[in-house]
Amino acid sequence: MKPFKDFSKDTAQKLRYILFDIDDTITANGKLIPQAFQAIWDLSRCGFQVIPVTGRPAGWCDLIIRQWPVNAVIGENGAFCFYQLNGRPEKLTHPSVCENVKEKLEKIREACLKEEPGCRVAKDQFARLYDLAIDFNEDEPRLGFEAAYRIQSVCESFGAEAKVSSIHVNTWFGKYDKLSMAKLMFEKVYQESCIKEKSLFFGDSPNDEPMFAFFSNGCAVANIVPFLDKLENKPSYISEKESGYGFAESIEFLLTLIEPIINEDITPIDL
Question: One digit per residue, pLDDT tens: the chain, 271 residues?
C-alpha cells in the first residue's frame, strides 16, 4: 500500500466516480464529522458522481439519496442501489436478492444470540429489507472482532452470506456483495463498462475487500490496519489519518490534483 499522498495527478484527472463506505470511513466515533461531510459537498460541486456504498439499511439509504449531496447509494452490502433520475429517487435491486427469507434469518438470529452471548440485533434492523445485522461493536458491550468472526461462522453454517464490518456482522441469502451491485449500477444506471480508471473507492474493513480487489484506485483510511492480516486483497493506498479524518484529508489532497473544471461529460447535482 502506498500513502494516498502518492496518488498521481494523471490518475486523478481520469476520475469520474467517488465511492466510499460510511461507518468508520466517513464517520469517527459513530458520528459523521463535518470535515468528511464538507468533503462530500466539495466532490459534488466539482462534478464528481458521489456514491456511498454501505451495509446500512434501506431506510437510511432513502434519507441519504434525498438529503445528502450524492448521486446514488448502494445499501445493505449490495442488495440494492437508490439513485437520482430527473430529481426523483429510483431503486435498482440486485437480481439474486432473496426476499422471502424472514424465517431463515430468524433462525440465524436465534443461533447468533445463543452462541455468542452479548451480541444483539442491530438497532437499525427495523429499517432493513433484505438482511440481518448483528451488532458486536456499535453499542455496548463491545465484543471485539474475534466475536465477530465467530458470529460470521454461525451465519455461514446456515448457508447464508456473511460479512464483517467495523460494527456489525451482516448476513443474507443471495449471491451479491458491494462490488457486484456496484458493477450492476454502473451498467444499468450509468451505462458504463470500463470503470476502473474512472473510479476511486474508500473503505475501512473486511466487507470492503471485494471493492479493494477490483478497483485499482482503492484507498483505506488508516483504521484498516488491524484488519490487514485478514485481507487477501489489500487496498492500493492508505490515508495518513483514521476514519472520517482520513477521508477528509484524502479528498482535500485529491482536489488539489484536478483542473478547476472537470468531468464536463457529467452533470453535477443541481443543488
Answer: 999 999 999 999 999 999 999 999 999 999 999 999 999 999 999 999 999 999 999 999 999 999 999 999 999 999 999 999 988 999 999 999 998 899 999 999 999 999 999 999 999 999 999 999 999 999 999 999 999 999 999 999 999 999 999 999 999 999 999 999 999 999 999 999 889 999 999 999 888 999 999 999 999 999 999 989 889 999 999 999 999 999 999 999 999 999 754 444 544 444 4
Q: Does domain 2-95+176-257 have CATH number 3.40.50.1000?
A: yes
State whether residue 90 is helix, strand or coil. strand
Q: Is the dihedral of CA 259, 261, 263, 268 positive or negative?
A: positive
Residue type, 230: K
pTM for this model (two decimals): 0.92
Question: What residue ranges do the domains of the chain occupy?
Answer: 2-95+176-257, 102-172
Nearest to 109 by CA among 81, 74, 139, 151: 151
Which residues touch 10 (CB under 8 Å, ≥6 apart)? none
In the numeric block, which cell numbers belong to residue 158?
446456515
Class of domain 102-172: alpha beta
Cell of 226: 488491524
